[in-house]
Design goal:
260 residues; alpha/beta; ten-stranded parallel β-sheet; two-stranded parallel ribbon; 14 strands; 26% strand; globular
């Protein structure tokens, strides 16, 4: 089900009706038109009654204001999305407008047992992976089936908080980091935080980050079973070569690709 800002409500309703009880793969794609926020809200009101059937959900927009509309809706409805295997929020920067999401809004507020692939691509939306609950939820209980994670175009501190919350995730096999904004003041975060131990991680792709940002990232994670490394438009810093074997065992590396 592909929906854009030109999709009519009657068209969406008809396609939902014809799909009957089939799983839904939903792709929402919007321009930066300021009128789209109201349109998106109404279109979501058509989609959310079918949340139990969501199989894939991918939202991309050049307008951060639009991207900010979705997370609270998704989070509150997550208990009904137990069949969801792929979820993505992707910012295609076209607008200088700022958006607002309440601080520490969880991507999902309840466990997602079927989710296998998660893509979060935005600059400044303060989403978190683990909801604030008592007792705290464990990452392995929230995402027991997650195997692929992509984090793109984020503020470095936001990325660091997401990465460190992955400690103990059981099945994560592939991680892709595509650019993030690093500032030297972020080093204080790594000094006060333990590395996330990603024991199941076998493949790491890093794209468009410089040596200082790479050093910062390496201080966030331990990847003892890493087998494949892909660096695209990024430097291989000396800190990677000098990494402790228990964090990155280069002797186990089977594939390495550097594309400048």
């Amino acid at each position: 089900l592909s929906i854009t800002d030109s999709s009519t409500f009657d068209e969406i309703g008809l396609r939902l009706y014809r799909s009957q009880d089939s799983p839904l793969s939903i792709r929402l794609s919007y321009s930066g038109d300021e009128e789209n926020e109201e349109i998106l809200g109404y279109q979501m009101s058509l989609l959310t009654p079918h949340a139990e059937r969501w199989f894939r959900f991918i939202l991309s927009s050049g307008d951060l204001m639009l991207l900010c509309v979705i997370p609270p809706i998704i989070s509150k409805q997550s208990r009904r999305k137990q069949r969801l295997v792929e979820f993505a929020i992707q910012n295609t920067p076209l607008s200088d407008e700022a958006g607002f999401v309440p601080h520490n809004t969880p991507v999902f507020d309840s466990p997602m047992p079927s989710l296998q692939k998660l893509t979060l691509s935005y600059d400044d939306i303060p989403l978190i992976l683990l909801p604030n609950t008592r007792p705290p939820r464990r990452i392995q209980d929230m995402f027991p089936s997650l195997t692929e994670l992509e984090l793109s175009q984020m503020d470095g501190l936001l990325l660091a908080r997401l990465i460190t919350s992955l400690d103990g995730i059981p099945l994560l096999r592939a991680l892709k980091i595509n650019g993030f904004c690093y500032r030297h003041g972020y080093r204080e975060f790594t000094n006060a935080t333990s590395r996330a131990n990603l024991k199941s991680l076998e493949e790491l792709t890093v794209q468009e980050i410089d040596e200082s940002a790479m050093d910062f990232f390496l201080d966030l994670v331990s990847m003892p079973n890493l087998r494949s490394l892909y660096l695209i438009g990024s430097q291989l810093p000396q800190s990677f070569v000098n990494a402790k074997p228990e964090n990155i065992p280069l002797s186990n590396m089977q594939k390495m690709s550097l594309i400048t």
